[in-house]
Amino acid sequence: MAAKQSSKDQIPAYPLWITLPYSLFVAVLTPFYWLRYGPGNFLWFSDIALFAVLIALWTGNRLLYSTMAVGVLPLELAWYIDFFTGGRLLGLAAYMFDPKEPVHMRILSGFHLFMPVLIVFMLIRQGYDRRAFKAQTAFAWGVLLASYWLTRREANINWVHGPGPEAQKVLPPRTYLGLYMVLLPVVVYLPVHLVLKRRFRP
User: Fold this and answer.
1) Do the domain assignments include residue 5?
2) Between 68 and which of 49, 77, 108, 159 could a Cys-Cys bridge form, CB atoms 3.0 to 4.6 Å apart?
3) How many whole angstroms separate alpha carbon 16 and alpha carbon 167?
4) pTM for the complete prediction?
């Protein structure tokens, strides 16, 4: 039995044994994250991808999950590396080993482990939409601006104030943000797009 599909391209729907547990997980995670971290936390690219993948599972929307593949797979790979080195290499997954962080929150944050695998599975099953690079670039610019203007500087959502947990102090804040918005698509998204374009069918 599979989730209903709505694509005009007759994209195969995903089985309910995938969509239902994933949907339940997102439904449980959302209030816990909201109460502990606040609504601004949902602007993190990985958190956005969590919801985008949910929609893609139910609708079979290729552009949606392909866009998330361009945007989050390289970041999730970095999270993987940091997690399996105990959070000491990059600091991205350090909170997973912080005894001050509630156990249930660390368990919920385990979505970083399975969501990239699910995205790759979707790429294998349905292919890669070549429009994803442009879509992700435009989407990321909007998210970065929202992260800059709508969230606390201390939170440094999506590193809009500096790479890593701390805000950078070398460049004026808006100069850094502008450079970041230019370099992110060129240095990160474009290479990923080219790899996905080569490895997965259109």
Assistant:
1) no
2) 49
3) 43
4) 0.90
